[in-house]
Amino acid sequence: MCSSDSVFSLSDYGIDTTVRIGSGTVMDELEVLKGQKIYLAVSRRVFSLRSDLAERLPRDGSIIIYLVDDGESCKSLSGYGAMIGDLLLHDFPRGGIIAYIGGGTLGDLSGFVSSTYKRGTGFAAFPTTLLSMVDSSIGGKNALDYDSLKNAVGTIWNPSRVVIDLDFLDTLPRDELYNGISEIVKYSILADPDLISSAGFRKLAQRDVSASADIIERSIHIKSMFLKGDVDDRKGGRIFLNFGHTFGHALEAVTHNAISHGRSVAAGMIFETQLAFDLGLCSETNKNKVVSMVVSSGIDLPGLHGIDPSLMMKYVLNDKKSKEGKLIIPFAVRPGKVDLAMVSPLEFEKSLMEFMVSGYEQR
After folding, report:
1. Domain 6-172: top CATH class
2. What is the C-alpha to C-alpha distance for residues 22 and 164, in angstroms, rounded to an integer?
3. What's the whole-model pTM score?
């Protein structure tokens, strides 16, 4: 282990997950696991960009490589069936470890497979996108899409190890980098307003590895704080992490993922803050502070012209966060203080219609 690595355990929310952050950690960690039976799902894109992976992986049969075209299309019932079929073809044992090297969609697929193959196997995560490093690899949510409904089928299955190799940041396109930055902005709004004003955050967009390590670790600890006592997503704490996502997921769905997750959630954080203001739940001053945090992050906010809000409502009404016919919407009272609102579909649609016309202009 490199002396500069950060290693810590996330056990405060009832699950023991060891997180390691550093440079060159993927190959180092695979050496540690050498000799164990490992089924390694690898993004084709990552495999093509990192030739050293192919060169340095053990050839003793202990690791089975399964290449996947990652992206939203991989986390489907057909993608699930294909991986299960390959595991059975190799007679992979229940006592083995299913791991992945890739982004969040591959993590969703691999985690879902790991949680269901032979009633559960070991699971390890090697996230390669900033979004998966700070978000999807932490907390154990794994899901498949069904038709155009995001995350319609899922499980909670935590990896025992999350290994974050900062060298992968150099492989990310700008849009992919900002997908992760959007989630970091969300954490900052929810719990740590100083996070995105720090020098480390400003250096993150320039892929400064040493600065990124601190921002990623701080983001992970913020997420784990909301997971505490709510690992299974049924007691309420975890729902705050959905800030910006009710709108964001609907925008992704209606545009068939033409607008990325990060940009969609950034727009969602602005809309859901505007919604809270419309409902009299936050002041105009605090609304403007939250919106300013999103805008100042540098995320390229998506254009909303021509997107049908009534079609978006179709997806909003399928959102899992609802109770007694009302939508449960987390919102920022002010930066660093969050609450929940029970919003009727009519209230949501009224604000949505106005927002889709006025866009990001202050009302």
Report:
1. alpha beta
2. 6
3. 0.90
Q: For residues 131 and 172, what is the distance between their CA atoms, to the nearest angstrom?
A: 11
Tell me the per-residue pLDDT of 91-137, one tens digit each, with 9 for 90 and over: 999 999 999 999 999 999 999 999 999 999 999 999 999 999 999 99
Give the residue extent of every domain in the chain.
Answer: 6-172, 239-358
Q: For the segment 59-99, what is each residue's pLDDT rounded down to a tens digit? A: 777 789 999 998 889 999 999 999 999 999 999 999 999 99
What fold characterizes domain 239-358? Dehydroquinate synthase-like, alpha domain (1.20.1090)
CB 80 within 8 A of CB 112: yes
Q: What's the per-residue H, E or C state across the chain?
A: CCCCCEEEEECCCCCCEEEEEECCHHHHHHHHCCCCCEEEEEEHHHHHHCHHHHHHCCCCCCEEEEEECCCHHHCCHHHHHHHHHHHHHCCCCCCCEEEEEECHHHHHHHHHHHHHHHHCCEEEEEECCHHHHHHHCCCCEEEEEECCEEEEEEEECCCCEEEEEHHHHHHCCHHHHHHHHHHHHHHHHHHCCCHHHCHHHHHHCCCCHHHHHHHHHHHHHHHHHHHCCCCCCCCCHHHHHHCCHHHHHHHHHHCCCCCCHHHHHHHHHHHHHHHHHHCCCCCHHHHHHHHHHHHHCCCCCCCCCCCCHHHHHHHHCCCCCEECCEEEEEEEEECCEEEEEEECHHHHHHHHHHHHHHCCCCC
Instruction: Tell me which long-range contacts 194-200 makes (C-beta under 8 A, separation of at least 24).
Output: 195/219, 195/222, 196/293, 196/296, 196/297
Neighbours of 16 (CB within 10 A): 10
The tens digit of pLDDT for each residue in 67-77 reads 999 888 999 99
For tokens 């282990």, name the residue.
1
CB atoms within 10 A of CB 84: 16
